[in-house]
């Protein structure tokens, strides 16, 4: 599918792209990149940018060297640099009429299910409002043990949470090479990777630049997360002007292909929920419909138990009280109490507002 057909795209920008070796901000580059984003938005794509650079921008302002910073100092530097970073985006993106917002995440925000669902909701709402979220790690509060430390893995979690089709890690090289191309001039670019084996892990080494953090190692970790989320991931050269246009035109980068589809990844996540919040019992007609791959409608529900909210994981039981499916409810338990046994057409009248017609949509449900 690659980029052309992706609806939700996460793009990660490394610090090296925003600040050059002489500590100069690469404004022209960012302006060109903003044009790329404008083009994608025009094609109705939803974009999330994950941008590094808080520490690099803070170091620039304070005239410090990133390599010698201790963790507590770097947290203060990040807090100073994050404003600089967002001011930079704001100044440049406004010229392309792109609305931006800021989201600062910690490891806990992406690893705890409820918090990650909240983050997903915020992304969805920002898309609806027509804003491009710009994400960074909340470096000011994250300490070593609870820190991503690199935005490559953070970006892959953001891609997973937002249900992205593609993640692009823009770096200072064309992609993953057989050896570090900054050291070995005859290294060869690998264009497509289906399986991340030991050989791939071995060639992905650290960065040699002052501002880069994880090198290829953390990009491979990110690729592994993407492969299991049904998201394709590219490492591409961001130093070029209009880097996204270049990918669309030449595709001269490294693509990591997902191991499962996005739908399967979602279903795997649904089935692996450890604590469903409630249950609904269904009649034989509804059971038959589920076995035929249909959604669960209110008409087939005979009982509801537990207290749950819209979007929560629930169990579906047959009339003998055996679990036959699991899914994400489109209604709260209180709402289901009022609409169960009713025809879908009646729901709006009963609840007094417009809502979905399925209690669990087939894409949000796994049969057991
Ligand atoms: N096998 C490899 N192929 C490409 N780059 C590699 C490889 N091994 C190590 N690298 C290093 O990874 C760097 C990119 O990562 P990094 O500096 O962390 O950038 P970013 O800011 O984009 O995260 C390259 O500049 C290169 O020095
Ligand atoms: N959150 C940090 C980013 C750390 C990071 O991943 O940097 P990079 O390797 O340049 O993408 C910052 O904003 O400085």
UniProtKB/TrEMBL annotation:
Entry keyword Iron-sulfur: no
Domain PUA: 278-360
SMART domains reported for this sequence: PUA
Catalytic activity: L-glutamate + ATP = L-glutamyl 5-phosphate + ADP
Binding site for substrate: 52, 139, 151
Pfam families for this protein: AA_kinase (PF00696), PUA (PF01472)
EC number in record: 2.7.2.11
Subcellular location(s) per record: Cytoplasm
Keyword set includes Cell inner membrane: no
Alphabetically ordered keywords of this record: Amino-acid biosynthesis, ATP-binding, Cytoplasm, Kinase, Nucleotide-binding, Proline biosynthesis, Transferase
Binding site residues for ATP: 12, 171-172, 213-219
Pathway the protein acts in: Amino-acid biosynthesis; L-proline biosynthesis; L-glutamate 5-semialdehyde from L-glutamate: step 1/2
HAMAP family referenced in this protein's UniProt entry, alphabetically: ProB (MF_00456)
Annotated function: Catalyzes the transfer of a phosphate group to glutamate to form L-glutamate 5-phosphate.
Family: Belongs to the glutamate 5-kinase family.
Protein name according to UniProt: Glutamate 5-kinase
